[in-house]
């Protein structure tokens, strides 16, 4: 579907109507994003739930309006939900039956995602769309593996099995080609947080940085997306693990099968990504200091490879001193020259109730944190 019809813009608020509707396609140039001859400042939030939880167009619009009010330019969201039986609430994008997948083009499938794109655009926002998940939330890789290979399959077969790869490419083709000419999409991402292991916690033993398992897969899949869509940027969507086995810090040691620098060097990946969750990663002695080091070291890679790099997920929960942490990390993002950032995650109060709260969520009535986002968006835009 090349053009989103006007009917999808029903329920657009006055704020949304005043927004500048995105036109043109964002490109990567050296360490910046560019829109025509002007720099595009990438700053905003994650909203994985906006196209999955049964929101109508009015509620989608309100959710995006709340994000746009901070000065955000960009939102990252999920473009997947793998199911093995139809669901009656929310949206799903691919239905698996006895090892065969069918893309859902209906009102609770890609037509629903059409509304997501329209609502984001109406609020002047562009979307980074992630196409599968390392984790079992909303299906992800393990549905492909279990449906095609059964109990004999390992999580990392997703990266190497030809039949699994072909099935994923089929989904990519259906989703990506639908929006090839859509300026409301900023970028496609191959996976949310790819690792050798996933929710089952098992792998074949062959997946590793030494074997370049995920790097080889990322090279193939990113090239495939480029072959069917030359308009949009492509990113990996990884957490930014380094491959330095002698480091005292686990996220630097390469044990998850990700080599950030090797992946950043892939020609068909336009930008690098990193996530930042020190408590989840066992970095509890000095989580703020670890985060600042993590940002600074990735900014060094950004400069060395001369590509944009974004902190596309970061956060601590509401029990872990968010204000002090974000004040420090935002300062480091600005001073390090990091290209952009997207906090995890946005929240809204909608007629159907509050959007999902995982402890990281920032709602508009949380004055200090919401205002901090607003101030940071202004600061990173002013930095140029």
TrEMBL record:
Reactions this protein catalyses = Random hydrolysis of (1->4)-beta-D-mannosidic linkages in mannans, galactomannans and glucomannans
- Which Enzyme Commission number(s) are on file for it? 3.2.1.78
Annotated InterPro entries: GH, Glyco_hydro_5, Glyco_hydro_5_CS, MAN-like
Q: What class of enzyme is it?
A: hydrolase
Q: Which Pfam families match?
A: Cellulase (PF00150)
What UniProt keywords are attached to this protein's entry? Glycosidase, Hydrolase, Secreted, Signal
Q: Quick one: where is this thing mainly located?
A: secreted
Q: Name one GO biological process term.
A: mannan catabolic process
> Ranges for the Glycoside hydrolase family domain?
45-347
Signal peptide feature range: 1-18
A molecular function (GO) held by this record is: mannan endo-1,4-beta-mannosidase activity
Provide a GO CC annotation, any one. Answer: extracellular region
Superkingdom of this protein's organism: Eukaryota
Q: What is this protein called?
A: mannan endo-1,4-beta-mannosidase
